[in-house]
Amino acid sequence: MPEPDPGRTADAPPPRRGLFAAGARRLLRRPGALLALTGWSLLEAAHTFLLGLAVARALDEGFLRDRPATGLAWLGVGAVGIVAGAFGTGRVHRAVGALTEPLRDLLVERVVGGGLHAAVTPGRTAGAAGAGAVSRLTHQVEIARDSFAGLLMAGRAFVFTAAAALAGLAALHPLLLLVVLPPLLCGLGVFAASLRPLARRQRRFLDADEALAAELDATLGGLRDVVACGAQERVRAEAAERVTDERRAASALARWGATRAVALGLGGRLPVLLLLLLTPWLLDRGVSAGALAGALTYLLQSLAPALESLVHGLGGAGARLAVVLTRLRGGPTDDDGPVRHRPPPPSAADAALELRAVSFSYGRGAAPVLDAVDLTVPRGGHLAVVGPSGIGKSTLAQLLAGLLRPTSGHLAAHGPVTLLPQEAYVFTGTVRENLGYLCPRPVPDAVLLGAADAVGCAELLTRLGGPDAVLDPAGLSAGERQLIALARAHASPDPVLVLDEATCHLDPAAEARAELAFRARPGTVVVIAHRISSARRADLVLVLDGTRAVAGRPAEVAAGSALFRDLCGGWDAAGGSQPAGPLGDADGVHAVARAGLPGDR
Amino acid sequence: MTPADRVLRDALRHQAVRATLLALVTTADAAAVLLLPAALGHTLDLLLAGEPATAALTGAAALLAALFLLDAVETVLTGTTTAHATARLRTRLIGHLLAVGPAGAARFSRGDLVTRATALAAQSGTAPGAVAALLASCALPLGGLTALVLIDWRLAGTFLLGVPLLALVLRAFTRRTGDTVERYLRLQGEIAGRFTETLAGARTIAAAGTLRRERGRVLAALPELSREGHRLWRVQGRSNAQAAVLVPLLQTAVVATGGLLLVAGELSVGTLLAATRYAALAAGIGVLTGRLAALVRARRSGARLAEVHAVPVAPHGTKPLPPGPGRLELRRVSAVRGGRTVLDGVDLTVPGGTTVAVVGRSGSGKSELARLAGKLTEPDHGEVLLDGVPLSEADPAALRRAVGYAFERPALLGGTLAGTIGFGPLPPPDPERITRAARAACADTFVRTLPHGYDTPCADVPLSGGEIQRLGLARAFTHRGRLLILDDATSSLDTATERQVTEALLNGDRPGTRLLVAHRAATAARADLVAWLEAGRLRALAPHARLWQEPDYRAVFAAGPEPADA
């Protein structure tokens, strides 16, 4: 959705100046391509120059003097000019490409850099940043590329064609310039003056178009909900409003298009009229009939069409480019991502993780997600974190991994921490690259395969074709991707591992096998539990219930936390291992919600 | 007349005044364009001969002024006609989609519908303007050629001979451009694919600190893309160079013939000049084919819009719903979806004020029943009644006020989180009601942890499945109707939260009937009655405790997947 930019009101001029300056700097940095563009454009312009001249000379020295051979010869010169000019046209395209492709490369780098940077920046809004980034990468970058090339093409074509035509006119008779130049400059002046308002309307139109698309995407995608909520009338009215906005913007743009007709009329048509009006005067001053015919040829066949493509090409493309480039203002292209916070080592010698009154909230004024959590996990310990969804378990995982900093309190960790999130990341690459992803140095295949075997991934690897096989992430199920990620974590040298529901797509047996493998691995493991069975396997349990955190051995916690008992009971019932009792009672545990649960506050 | 033409004709009729005006303007413009070379040539001849040329000059000046004005009017009119026609097509399409509802629109994907309502409607919207300008578009090349014939048949002959000859010469140089474009798009897709892959793994990348490595991996194909891009420019340059040769050479040939006629005294300088211009106009046949192709494209887009309009609107009545407890009746209801009988003669009565859980294996027709119960779709046979009124006869607005829904994957509409919870007919419910509903749905806690709380735009928050469900439940809880339908709306909640939400649902202060599609035995256990569906038929309607005795019933819950607690 197009965010209304707080720093820019609708009436402020678009930031063109800075854009053009940046564009010009970029062009000047490639003198070779610019030189080629100029050279080939000159050749292309030779065609224009020769065209009127050939007609004039063919008439004056040939056909009008009963010398048809001379006339044809001059036309032949013109034809050679046409072919040479066409060769120039072909080369001009290459030169424009040489200037445009680097821009596209830069934009792709920026969009990818910015998109990735935003996606890995921690916080509640991470991930949303990536939405739309792919459209920017494919669609909008191409719009920028086409618009830039179009601008370069039309602007350059006009400059060289106009220069060649004016030079031709001067060659025919300098007085002709006096007739043609003033109205042409007037037309250009009108065009230049209209560029800014035209660009503003173009921008408004593109904004309205995007707002409409976003609104329709939401409402048509949620048509079931619109009808179920009885919101048809409201949605119809809102959509009609967007449609009308877009129509108004398009109409305003069309009305301003009339300035193009004015510019064309002044610059392209008025010279023709002036030329005719002044013909007797020009004839008196020695301008020949052929020169007049040549001048009209220049006006009608070169100048007017060049002006027309300038006027039509520049206005729209310039505004589109400006709009798209401001959207594409990507992020850094060579950074290492957000700085990870390295917690200090714990004060106790045998502790792996130490939390003292750790609190965290997403922004000032927001209620804390974690409030004064105290916890110590010994080295080699196995902690399971349980609690209802949305209670802050993943936030805790990110704090432990140093991706978030506590708002207050003290957090210490022994050595680097590896975090394995719920969404297993498997990329297009070899199995070896995927498994060794967390190892800073290359690791022998045997170590990687050993890790895979330990977590129960060996069979999958055999099926995929061994360490050299190239993985296709889309061809793997969510559970298979998690197995690969688990093997990768097992092979990591980091002494502390945090598994944030990293086994949620595995069946209970596979989950148990993986968790036991991590227990057997030297080091500390924190499991954000997806199933209560994970808590039963752990040495320590931390229960988060929204107001307080209770930690201890599973049996102690079960005795002290009704929520823990509630979770145990519920999970088992859903698993189908026991019949769910009638209302309000699942395997004898007191099930009525009490103070301490989210929503009770 | 095809359906596409009917859609476009409506747009044309809606823009009749503008289109007629545009037709007149473009025709007049074409006439002026065709007259101008002759007028210019005639004037030049008079001036060169030193004869009085005031009348001719005035005529030429009038033509130039007319062209200037007509051009300006045409530009504005074409733009506004297209804008208005596009708006008309869009409004009608959106209106129709809202009228057919989710069941009718289901045959199109979301992206497809958006494309139809945006890009394709815009393309169809050009049709009225293109139709209006069609006469003028034909007139220019034909007029140019006729003028050549009228001046001298040999000029026309030169032109007509030259066209195929040049076309043949140029064809020899034409090369295939298709594969280069294809390679370029493939590489672009490869980069986009890796980018998407990497974005999905953002949390792993953040945790592992491997951003630089990943950026390199995504951009690995960029140099090759760049090479293909350069190649595209070369190919395009070649074909444009060919186009740059054709028309000027034709004109030169006409000038050469004209020059020979001039020597023979059969042509004047002014007429020769006019002939050159007419040759260019006649060569503009390419412009005409371009316009025709655009019209064909507009019609093809119109056909895509017509496909949407072809979906029939379900009948509805105007009967108000009498006051009642929310008694829901299904009478011999059958539904066929995609050739499969999803529900088969279901008779079900839900007494007003009770809670009925709908259970059954996946594919047994639970969700279809939930949709039918609130007229989100229509039965193929049978009738659904609410407090004695058949839904097909009820006033739609009254029906929506009476029936509320919560879904497994609700669409979050309404902008902010508060707007989402209060989404429905305007005016929105007051904030107090929204927070109360959010609290009942266990959504209040996580909403308050957001920097802007209830005012946070949904688009700015990546919500988990459980959080989305809780917002959808809160939205249903703000609804004050007599029937509330929950279609698997608690499946992503952990058991503790689900228990709490169900508690609020059953024991809260809201009266009325509740229909819950449930996968968990614990949920079914809390309902007054369970409607047990099997292969589209109602197998039993009884309390959970009684049904639990049957092994078949217990088996319905045994294979249930674990909650995907997020």
Automatic annotation (TrEMBL), chain A:
InterPro entries the record matches: AAA+_ATPase (IPR003593), ABC1_TM_dom (IPR011527), ABC1_TM_sf (IPR036640), ABC_transporter-like_ATP-bd (IPR003439), P-loop_NTPase (IPR027417), Type_1_exporter (IPR039421)
Keyword annotations: ATP-binding, Membrane, Nucleotide-binding, Transmembrane, Transmembrane helix
Record-level GO cellular component terms: plasma membrane
Subcellular location: Cell membrane
Membrane topology of the entry: Multi-pass membrane protein
Chain ranges passing through the membrane: 34-59, 71-89, 148-169, 175-195, 261-283
Every ABC transmembrane type-1 domain range: 32-305
Broad class of the protein's primary localization: membrane
GO molecular function: ABC-type transporter activity; ATP binding; ATP hydrolysis activity; ATPase-coupled lipid transmembrane transporter activity
Domain called ABC transporter: residue spans: 353-571
Protein name per Swiss-Prot or TrEMBL: ABC transporter ATP-binding protein
Automatic annotation (TrEMBL), chain B:
Family annotation (InterPro entries): AAA+_ATPase, ABC1_TM_dom, ABC1_TM_sf, ABC_transporter-like_ATP-bd, ABC_transporter-like_CS, P-loop_NTPase, Type_1_exporter
Gene3D superfamilies reported in the protein's UniProt record: ABC transporter type 1, transmembrane domain, P-loop containing nucleotide triphosphate hydrolases
Highest rank taxon of the organism: Bacteria
Location in or out of the cell: Cell membrane
Every ABC transmembrane type-1 domain range: 21-284
Transmembrane regions: 21-40, 52-70, 130-151, 157-174, 243-263, 275-294
GO molecular function, one term: ABC-type oligopeptide transporter activity
DNA-binding is among the record's keywords: no
GO cellular component, one term: plasma membrane
Stretches assigned to the ABC transporter domain: 328-560
Keywords: ATP-binding, Membrane, Nucleotide-binding, Transmembrane, Transmembrane helix
Record-linked PROSITE patterns: ABC_TM1F, ABC_TRANSPORTER_1, ABC_TRANSPORTER_2
Protein topology in the membrane: Multi-pass membrane protein
Broad class of where this protein is predominantly found: membrane
Keyword Transmembrane helix assigned: yes
Protein name: ABC transporter ATP-binding protein
Species for this entry: Streptomyces chumphonensis
